[in-house]
Structures are given as structure tokens and as C-alpha cells.
Amino acid sequence: MKKAALMVLVLGLVFSLSVLAQDAKMFSVYSDKNTSDNHYIPSGFMGDYGDVRMDDQSSVTPHSGATCIEFTYTAKKSQGQGWVGVRWQNPPNNWGSKKGGYDLKGMTKLTFWARGAKGGEKLQKFVVGGIKGTYPDSAEIEMGPVELTDQWKEYTINLAGKDLSYISGGFGWVATADLNPDGAVFYIDDIKFEADASVQAEAKKKEEMPFYVYSDSSSIKNHYIPSGFMGDYGDVRIEKASKETPYAGDTCIKTTYSAKSSQGAGWIGIYWQNPANNWGDIDGGFDLSKATKLTFWAKGVKGGERIEEIKIGGIMGNFPDSDTASIGPVILTNEWQQYTIDLNGKDLTSISGGFCWVTNVDVNPEGATFYFDEIKYE
Fold first, then answer.
1. Which end of the chain is more exposed for a tag (fewer CB within 10 A), N or C?
2. Widest CA span in the chain
3. How confident is residue 23, by pLDDT bands cut at 50, 70 and 90?
């Protein structure tokens, strides 16, 4: 009888913990160092993890309480990635291999305060959820990019209408060397989930034009990430901050294709995606229905480089793009030329694949080097 009673007590405690967040009006990720209200651990270092130093008990003018979290990012590309990120996890270092997390049903937003040491520090995104693996998070919600000021400012991630029944990745951020070529020092404080009944689920807003895929490597106006490598992905090198005669601004995108058929496919392609690596498994993308065309500038090193297809949209999966449009083949010259994809009559209400190009070894047997710049919806 004693064992049975103990088992009932334990099961009751586990159940109580599982619904703790669901019943609460506020669920803290970080309020102050070593407070009993904190949940999740900033243990998930990603990308150039050697480039970031964290002090989770910084006393440098916290937003409230005695401490805040200070991050110092050097942008030295220690692991060769060009980006860095930190995820708050439960349990620590859990990338979906362990059962953990919290049931956050009822929470409608996550709020946090942030500032830069100087102002102008740029964060690519902030995120709730998104852990994959055997025990995946039930949702992934992103917000960004964000340019910080040198004053504390509150930011909000809308969670209304999202499935928060299992969240082991409570919070996270990503920064890139492109957006912060000289590094960045920034502070975060008072991270918390809130049950605010006034917050309503957001539909995709119609984005204003022009809407940039790429303006300049350090521009916060950029949307989409060149993360969708296809075919012979080992044959291509992409430099998002090339200073070799850009069409406009300080940088352009340089692509070098070796045509070695490293993966045996005989072709190569890259998708610019939102969020990064989204092949339709995440409800991402943008409503670009105000656009009537996509324009971009391109050139080859020698001239004669051939790109078989350049397109927008076309990603499938559970959350497919609403349409697709393309041009091609395109034979480049060694001078900058502008190209246009006509989008009149297209359904652009949800586009996760913002830009894509494909070519192959048959039309570029010796490989090819080419450039893109000023990619934008208009």
C-alpha cells in the first residue's frame, strides 16, 4: 500500500508540473540570476560557438533587478559558420533527444527587453520552439531581424494560436557576421511568457514594397536566407559579402560553382528560404501579394555562364508556397544586367522560397563564377 500511495503521489506531482505553465498567467525564462522563477537554461550554443561569451549575471545597468544577461560576439568565424546563436533549453543541451520541455498552452506572447552596448547591433532573429529530434517542439515561431538601440526596449513574439503543448526550446537568438562584421555586445533581460487575452493570432501581413531578398550583406532590410542547397552542394561556394565590383552598395553575392559533381547529381541549386532550411515543414514565409515583379542584377566573371532557371516560390511540404514563377535559361554577360520575373496574376500570399537558381554541369562543364545583387520584390 505504501508503494502504491507513493506512486500516486509521484504521478500527481509530475502532472502538476506539466500543467504549471498552462495554468499560470506568467512563466519566466529569465528574471534575475539564480531566482527560483527561472525556467530553461541557455545551453544550446550554435554556429560559431567560439565567437560568443555569455555572462548571465551581468550587473551592467540591468533593465530590472540586480542582473541581466550580457553577450559578447566577436564575429571571428571560429567554426567557419559566419553565424552564432544560443537556445534556452529544457533539460540543458536538449536538441530533441530527451523528454523535457513545458506545456505552455494558454500563453499568447513572449516578451523580453534588450539593448546594445552602442546601438546598431543587429540580431537576425529571435525564436520560440523549433527544437527537432525524437521529441520535437510542437511549434516554431520567429521574429526579426531586429536592430537594437543603446536603450532598453521591450520586444514581443506573438504566440496566439500556436500549438505550445510541448516547448523544450523556450527562447533563442541568432546573429550573423554579415550583419555585425565588427562583432556586437548586447544585453537581454526579463524574458517571460505571458497569458494576455487581448493578443490575437496574427495573419501574415501584406509586406510593403520594395521588399528585399538582398540589398547589402550588412543590411537589416534583407529577408530570406540562402540555406537551401540542392544537388551537388559540395560544388558550390557562396560569399554573401563579396566586395568584387558590386552593382550597388558595398557588397554583392559571389557564387563559385566547380562542376565536379561531388554528390553525383550533375546539377546544383540554392533556395533563399524563410525561415532558414524551410522546405515546407514550417509555416513561414511572407505575404508578397503587393508585388508585381522580382528584379535582380547579375553578371558572370567571363560572360557565357548559363543559369538554367531562376525562380521564386515552388517549395512544397505541409506549408507549401502559394505559387511559383520563373525565367530561364539565363546566359550572363561580364557586365551587370538587370533581370525581371513577372509576378502579375500570381498568388503571393505565402512565399517561403523567396529566390532560387539552378544550373548544371552540362551547360557549365568548366564550372562558373557569377554574381547577384539588389534582389528585390517590387
1. N
2. 85
3. low
